[in-house]
Amino acid sequence: MAKVRLGIIGLGQQGGAYGNMIKEGRISNIEIGAICDIDPEKKKWADQEFPDVPFYQDYIDMLASGDVDAIVTCVPHYLHPEMGIEALDRDVHALLEKPAGVYTKQVKEINEFANNKPDLTYAIMFNQRTNLLYQKVKEIIDHQEIGNIRRTNWIITSWWRPQGYYDAGSWRATWDGEGGGVLVNQAPHQIDLLQWICGMPKKVYTKAQYGYQRNIPVEDDVTTILDYGNGATGVFITCTHDVLGTDRLEIYGDKGKIVVDDSKKVTIKRLNKPEKEMSDTMSMQEVSKLLKGEGSGAIYQEEVLEFDSVWGGQHRAVLENFAANILDGTPLIASGSDGINGVELANAMHLSSWLNKEISLPIDENLYVEELNKRREQEIRQNIQT
Predict the structure, then answer these.
(1) Fewer CB within 10 Å, N or C, the chain?
(2) Cβ(138)–Cβ(196) below 8 Å
(3) Domain count, the chain
(4) Which residue range forms the structural domain that includes residue 63?
(5) Tens place of pLDDT for every residue, the chain, 386 residues?
(6) CATH number at residue 34
(7) DSSP E strands, 293-333
(8) Which intervals hold domain Gfo/Idh/MocA-like oxidoreductase N-terminal (predicted)?
(9) b or e along 177-192 (b: 16 or more beta carbons within 10 Å of the residue's beta carbon)?
């Protein structure tokens, strides 16, 4: 096999973008094997843009056709695990869009199914893991360059979405169609990066607001306190209504700190001595000078790194890596099984806000599904009444 024949399920904004990348030759090891969408209007568009590509309205028919070696799921989140399982069951490789699913029980199903298909490639579109900036931050943390983490803070409020964005699709920002708001649509990348770089917390406490600044039933504003179980804590803040949004990640360790601004610039301050050693050995005269800002530069070394924007290139990198794993065994950037961590964190945040209490991880999966279904059913009843 020289190229992987990719089946694109869902020819919306994301599926169309992938189709154009491949058509334009920007992904060297993939060709479009087939396209699937349930909307007849999408067939008209596909016939124009991809005239030689088979089109299916039923993805099962596409999987059984022999036209594809692999699929990517550009569909509502609830369908990702189901479609992935159906593909793997037919010996078709699967790349899931983020998030891996809406709740952990369904993600566990595909993870367990994939374990029984070790010869197939199962991956997830965590394109931010290809970002050299975050790879560098992870390397610094993994190598203990700023010591043991004491605190993490991520304000990611640069996800501004106007009301028209939500009105464009009936399934958007609904419990029954999408499974949530900013935590399952916009912020899964940062949620994944946070746990990928800093590890999973042991507990979360969340204050979320639902339909706060937009006419939607799901969360559009979230503030979460993270407890890592060893004394370290964190704060994660996200929303979709801040037109002057902020993207700032701070990681404090006992030997320094990292600050990331706008996902473009990293400032690393490495202490010459661990904080505990400074506390135990500095005289009050030295402390007084330090508090006045005198000689503060002598206690740490500063490094500033700036990175170019790689928007768009990240998705291509994941697609190329997915195909390379199929063709020659190149290690995956993000195995599909990794997707459950971000889903569990988002589930824990929802559950904490719904029950107004701190939630321990791993979460009570059955309780989460029960609470989610209450909201889905209420939403359906309200839609019938209106």
Answers:
(1) C
(2) yes
(3) 2
(4) 4-126+312-336
(5) 799 999 999 999 999 999 999 999 999 999 999 999 999 999 999 999 999 999 999 999 999 999 999 999 999 999 999 999 999 999 999 999 999 999 999 999 999 999 999 999 999 999 999 999 999 999 999 999 999 999 999 999 999 999 999 998 888 999 999 999 999 999 999 999 999 999 999 999 999 999 999 999 999 999 999 999 999 999 999 999 999 999 999 999 999 999 999 999 999 999 999 999 999 999 998 899 888 887 667 899 999 999 986 555 899 999 999 999 999 999 999 999 999 999 999 999 999 999 999 999 999 999 999 999 999 999 999 888 87
(6) 3.40.50.720
(7) 300-306
(8) 5-117
(9) bbbbbbbbbbbbbbbb
Burial category of 318 from C-beta neighbours within 10 Å (exposed 0-12, middle 13-18, buried 19 and up) = buried
Residue 203 phi/psi, 5-degree rounding, is -145, 155
Do 260 and 276 lie in one domain? The reply is yes
Q: Which residue has the tokens 């989140």?
A: 77
140 φ/ψ angles, rounded to the nearest 5 degrees: -65, -45
Residues composing the chain: 386
Q: Which of 100, 109, 97, 87 is nearest to 34 (CA)?
A: 87
- Note whether 257 and 296 are same-domain residues: yes
Calpha distance 34→16 (Å, rounded): 12
Greatest C-alpha distance within the chain: 78
The reply to whether 246 and 369 lie within a common domain is yes
First to last CA, the chain: 53
Q: 93: burial class by Cβ within 10 Å (0-12, 13-18, 19+)?
A: buried
